[in-house]
Amino acid sequence: MTVSGKKIKTSMIDGLMFELTAEILRLRSQEGSLEAAGKAAVLSNAPSKRTENSRKRYVTEALSRLRRLTEQETDSFATLSLEDQRLLLWIALCRTYPIVRRFATELLRDSLLVSKKPVSDGDYNAFFSRLAAEEPVYDQLSVPYRQKIKHTIFGAARNAGLLKEDRTVIPAVPSGELCQAVAGSSPEDLLCLPCDESYIRRMLQS
């Protein structure tokens, strides 16, 4: 989306998209590349959508997130636990959308480590107001669009296993394998997971 001449990526058409992205990664091992896997996903209707345009739209969105993963991260996906796979796709989402990254590193971590209470609508609204003040492009988004983004972010966090239904934050417990794969290129991205930094350091040393 372009607002006042500045392009920002806000088109989160779905939450974590775990099933679709996992299928594309499975197809990648057969087809040899993400691009070929994406085409195969459209042909096989991996998104389970009625029209070809919808299938292409969902696959394009999934590919945009998967391209944010390094080769090491992508290759490790199949051997990770289900919980780690969801956390890795959450990190990919945070890399794709700056607002999700800020949500993860500010709201989720603060709720877990500082306030120790569920994330309320007031918390989110205050967060969005700060974000809009720092980056005016967000302030120009319509109210319905803001609500859609909010709903999608909370849904993705729940799908990643990071939020309960009452929005209480669930501490992430990434394995050493996941921490080392992510730290290989961008260790700061591990801060997208709501857990104590001392735990991450232990996992990196394991």
What's this entry about, in short?
With 206 residues, this protein is mainly alpha-helical. It contains eleven helices and two strands; from the N terminus they run ββααααααααααα.
Keyword list:
206 residues, mainly alpha, 11 helices
Task: Describe how the helices and strands are arranged.
Blueprint: E1 2-3, E2 6-7, H1 18-31, H2 34-43, H3 52-66, H4 71-76, H5 82-96, H6 98-115, H7 121-134, H8 136-139, H9 143-159, H10 176-183, H11 197-205
Structure description:
63% of the residues lie in helices and 2% in strands. A two-stranded antiparallel ribbon has the order 1-2. With 206 residues, the chain is mainly α. It is globular.
- Please count the helical segments: 11
For the CA atoms, what is the radius of gyration?
17 Å
How many strands, which pairing sense, and closed or not: the largest β-sheet? 2 strands, antiparallel
- The average pLDDT is 92
Shape: globular
Low-confidence stretches: 1-6
* Measured distance between first and last alpha carbons: 42 Å
